[in-house]
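Consider the tokenized backbone below.
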């Protein structure tokens, strides 16, 4: 099919977010867009446990409800070979070594979906044609 959509590399997403309304909104937007949310969690321990279920991408805030942070989640994801996109108000200094990029809060639903598509393209070695506002992608 010439004009068909390409197969996604990212299908299963783990959401690590301590703001309930943001987590709920992300979960529903991603589900409506055809992604499978493997879990929505708000602590480092729950995120590390959820990584065992397998995810193609982790969306992680930096500040989490257990006093831990998204950097701990990013280190665990990196050890498993699972890409992580920080979704946060302030991208951590050492994010480049741990994540594929950062999406700045606040972001729209459209920007979140476009950011995931951009990460999907980057992971496949494709050129990212148009990154949404607030998205910073890091070199592999």
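A designed sequence for it:
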């Amino acid at each position: 099919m010439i004009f068909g959509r390409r197969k996604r590399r990212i299908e299963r997403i783990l959401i690590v977010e301590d703001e309930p309304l943001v987590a709920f909104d992300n979960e529903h937007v991603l589900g409506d867009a055809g992604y499978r949310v493997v879990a929505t969690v708000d602590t480092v321990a729950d995120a590390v446990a959820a990584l065992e279920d397998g995810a193609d991408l982790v969306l992680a805030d930096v500040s989490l409800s257990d006093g831990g942070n998204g950097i701990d989640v990013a280190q665990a994801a990196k050890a498993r070979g699972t890409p992580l996109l920080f979704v946060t108000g302030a991208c951590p200094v050492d994010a480049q070594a741990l994540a594929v990029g950062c999406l700045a809060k606040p972001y729209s639903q459209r920007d979140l979906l476009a950011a995931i598509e951009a990460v999907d393209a980057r992971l496949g070695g494709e050129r990212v044609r148009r990154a949404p506002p607030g998205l910073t992608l890091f070199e592999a």
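The chain is about 35% helix and 20% strand.
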